[in-house]
Design a protein that fits this description.
By secondary structure, the protein is mainly α. It has a domain of 120 residues: Cytochrome c/b562 (Four Helix Bundle (Hemerythrin (Met), subunit A)). 70% of the residues lie in helices and 0% in strands.
């Protein structure tokens, strides 16, 4: 794991875990006081933004952006691996990192915190967006399992299905602002 991954996973991941646990605790308390509630909300339920500070919202958006940045770096490295430009010995680590970042980003997007470069369409067309994210998590996990065996050609055959970044970004992400 690279240093940045360690930082993201240890420092920001810890702050995210504390924030999500806090939100789940608040939701559980509300559910307990509401006699019509069957069970407390899951920690990946949409966040009640009205009860969050700007700092908490910004932290979640930042976490989401960092997960996507790590995905982009890992996808670039994976491209180099399958092209023979980077050592195949990095295949398992790279595909695992992609799958882990896919899960992390999925969890963060499930909280439905608007902001960053995510278009409003992600929230207004949640069924489609969520379906794409579910597929992303499933296919990258399958790719990581093949990557763990060291099968570069097997991973190469899965790339088109697992990494449909452009198709999703064209619909649900704002382009980078040019300066």
């Amino acid at each position: 794991m690279n240093r940045k991954g360690f930082f993201r996973g240890r420092v920001l991941g810890t702050s995210l875990a504390v924030l999500v646990a806090s939100m789940a605790w608040q939701q559980a308390g509300q559910a307990a006081s509401d006699t019509s509630a069957a069970a407390p909300a899951a920690s990946t339920a949409p966040a009640d933004i009205s009860k969050m500070s700007k700092e908490e919202i910004d932290t979640l958006i930042y976490e989401r952006q960092q997960a996507m940045i790590q995905l982009e770096k890992d996808a670039d490295l994976l491209g180099d691996i399958v092209a023979g430009l980077a050592p195949a010995s990095k295949l398992a680590e790279t595909t695992r990192s992609i799958a882990d970042s896919a899960k992390e980003s999925h969890t963060l997007f499930q909280m439905k915190i608007p902001g960053g470069r995510t278009k409003a369409e992600a929230w207004s067309n949640w069924a489609d967006y969520s379906k794409r994210m579910d597929h992303f998590v499933t296919s990258t996990e399958a790719m990581a399992k093949v990557g763990a065996t060291g099968n570069v050609q097997g991973v190469l055959g899965m790339l088109g299905d697992a990494l449909q970044c452009k198709q999703c970004h064209e619909v649900y992400r704002e382009p980078k602002k040019t300066t």
